[in-house]
Amino acid sequence: MTGGYALGRDPASLGWSGLGRKRGRQRGRERGRQRGSATAELAVALPVVVLTLLLGVGVLGAGLRMVSLQDAVADAARILGRGDGGGDAGAVVARADPAAGFAVSRSDDLVCVTASAEARILGGLAVPIRAIGCALEGGR
């Protein structure tokens, strides 16, 4: 052994110099900066994700309201087609959506009920909802 090193190699040739230690410290600092950038990216992305989820829930709620209103106008048209009173048809629509307005039109052998309302998405965006249901006049 020469100079206290195994096989006669000096530490610099094996990568054990002071320069290697400096590189290790630099890598540690870079990792710290990368952690900070990941936190900043999360801080920017999180509100976007939350807003997207809230928008999706609002659209889903408007869709469910539309399905309920469509079912109600179909029932109301059948009630009017059988010759029952208009108050019963109005009650069916009001039960499905108290804020909905409805209108009745008759042509040939058909009775049609149209209901319309507004669904609010994210508290401020108003989406119009309109449902139309028709039935044969005379209960046929």
TrEMBL record:
This protein's UniProt keywords: Membrane, Transmembrane, Transmembrane helix
Domain TadE-like as annotated: residue spans: 36-78
Pfam families listed in its UniProt record: TadE
Keyword Transmembrane among record annotations: yes
Keyword Repressor applies: no
Stretches that traverse the bilayer: 42-64
Region annotation Disordered: where it falls in the sequence: 16-36
Family annotation (NCBIfam families): TadE_Rv3655c
Name assigned to this protein: TadE-like domain-containing protein
Organism in which the protein naturally occurs: Microbacterium panaciterrae
